[in-house]
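Record type: monomer structure entry
Structure origin: computed from sequence
Chain ID: A
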Amino acid sequence: MPDEIDTRNVRDISISASGSGIAAGSIQSLNVNIGGTDLQTLLPLLQNAGLFSSPVPVPSNDPIEIGQLRRDYYNLFVIEDETYRDGSFSISRSDALTRYTHNADHFRPMTADIIAEILSMPCLFTIRNDDFSRCSENWVCVAGKLSKITVHGSVIKFKFGYYAPAIPQNLLNQNAELFGLATSSLRNELDDEHWAIKKIDLLSVLKDRNYEIR
């Protein structure tokens, strides 16, 4: 299903057509909203935060897809020294479901059935904190959904789509227990590059913090 686009903010459009039927025109101002978020604001924010490299892909807020996501678990990804690029990234198998994961013995075999389970879960895509248990104020993360998981030897490759709105990463740092994050006196698991699965209703937690995914 295509993204819903709010056309109420489209204005100052002029179009003219020649005798051959070819139309030419200009748009002076175009504000496109997806998931209640203005793309002109969102896309530069994601690039400046280091989450994506240019060009930043458009969010894929499909209400039907979002409504079918599992509500009992979510995938947490923390990467370092790379971006999520054009909707793809990789994790070393040594950092995949080896720590911080709820019900790890069930998910770790990565059979076809288990991969299907994982693909039905929402995700949080984050960057490793640049300080202990906190990050720069402009850093954001995004929720989304995996579309493909491929195991290549010691590396696992992922393809995914993400949802608006962007979420301040310090929201996770400041509410570690709500998001199921492991913590110690000085650190939390966003300080560590890895992939974990959490037995948490991510969408409800985000909605309760005014970051509803829709």
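Annotation 1: The chain has two domains: 7-35, 40-208.
Annotation 2: The mean pLDDT is 86.
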